[in-house]
Amino acid sequence: MDPLTLFALANGAVSAVKAGCKLYKDIKGAAGEVREVLKDLDDQFSKLHPPEKPPTVAQKNAYIQEKNRVIELNKKQGDTVGIYTELGEHLGAYYDNYYKCMAIFEEEEKHSQHEIYQGDASLGKRALQRVLMRKQLEQMGVELREVMVYQSPKELGALHTEVEQMMKIMGKQQKILVASQMRDDHVRAVKKRRRMDAVWANAVWGVMAIVIAASIGLMFAFVIQDRIEKYPQLGTDIVPKTEAQRRAEAEPKRYVGR
User: Fold this and answer.
1) 0.70 cut: is pTM over it?
2) Which residues contact 163 (CB under 8 A, 6 or more apart)?
3) How many CB atoms lie within 10 A of CB 97?
4) Residues in the chain with pLDDT < 50?
5) CA separation (Å) from 35 to 32, 40, 76, 191?
6) Per-residue pLDDT tens for 175-203?
7) Cα torsion 91, 97, 100, 104: sign
8) Who contacts 233 (Cβ-Cβ below 8 Å, separation ≥6)?
9) Measuring CA to CA, which of 65, 169, 175, 233 is 20 to 30 A from 116?
10) Count of alpha carbons within 13 Å of 253, Cβ hemisphere only?
């Protein structure tokens, strides 16, 4: 589990919640009051543009677009149920990734106290990243509370409270599971690194043995070739001829006929 990925997922969930809250408020605000809203728009437009001061084409189009927006929002009144459900899912996704990040940060801080860090970033940089990400995640939670509890209809505030309380309990469970998984991953990583070290060591020894054997073979070949050139009477075989073999070869050959 990468903290940066979890952080990005939490940030995306927060953005989705904010957008959903805005849409939910717009629909709730327009639903059931469309006639009054449209009448109010007409009155404001008439005051701004009396007969002696007709609107421009751009102003007329903007007025029509706003009326259409209000009408469309009124048609979407039943969509608030789906939006409410999606808000709950995105809110749960934020807290899920938040608690996973916090559990990972805690485990990393524990390991940093008694293990040598071997990553690309320095210990100081990793610690700074944890501090900044923790602060940003906490700030996201503050913003969610502000939007859902104080700036949205009360049912969204109640949803935030219920999800927050539920995720606190699940967060404690996640903390235990994440810690266990990280320890298991660490043990597997150590075993894998040891296996790779053993493979590399065996490979190095194997290459060294081949190099040594080849060197010895070349040395013997050089010695034999040098002997053949300097002492041709000893023959061209690997094992030189003995004195008895040379005397036997030097004696005249006798051929016995039938």
Assistant:
1) no
2) 88, 91, 92, 95
3) 25
4) none
5) 8, 8, 15, 71
6) 777 777 777 777 787 788 888 888 898 89
7) negative
8) 241, 246
9) 175
10) 3
Q: Rounded distance, CA 257 to CA 1, Å? A: 95
Residues 55-69 as b or e (16 or more Cβ within 10 Å = b)? eeeeeeeebeeebee
Concatenate the DSSP letters of all residues of the chain into one string: --HHHHHHHHHHHHHHHHHHHHHHHHHHHHTT-HHHHHHHHHHHHHHHS-TTSPPPHHHHHHHHHHHHHHHHHHHGGGGHHHHHHHHHHHHHHHHHHHHHHHHHHHHHHHHHTTS---SSS-HHHHHHHHHHHHHHHHHHHHHHHIIIIISS-HHHHHHHHHHHHHHHHHHHHHHHHHHHHHHHHHHHHHHHHHHHHHHHHHHHHHHHHHHHHHHHHHHHHHHHHHHHHH-GGG-SSSSPPPHHHHHHHHSPP-----
